[in-house]
Specification:
Double Stranded RNA Binding Domain; 33% strand; three-stranded antiparallel sheet; 3 strands
């Protein structure tokens, strides 16, 4: 299990403002994480065989999505 100061990957997502939903059967889980950032809703999806696997995929995609959002903001500010 991933841990930073005792947090699991799922706890990290929720503590940083992401709302997480998961569903599926054993060994075939799907998850969605959403977060409001300055009025814009960011959404990422992922799959895995355990809740922790899905949480890690969501963390990876959430960080990518936040970087893309930040890039869009820079472009808009420069225009």
């Amino acid at each position: 299990m991933f841990s930073v100061s005792g947090w699991s990957a799922m706890e990290w997502l929720t503590m940083t403002g992401w709302t997480v939903e998961m569903c599926g059967e054993d060994d075939d889980l799907r998850g969605t994480a959403t977060r409001q950032v300055y009025g814009e809703t960011l959404t990422v999806n992922g799959t895995g065989s355990t809740r922790e696997d899905v949480a890690w995929v969501l963390i990876d995609r959430a960080s990518d999505e936040l970087e893309l959002w930040e890039g869009r903001q820079r472009v808009a500010a420069a225009a």
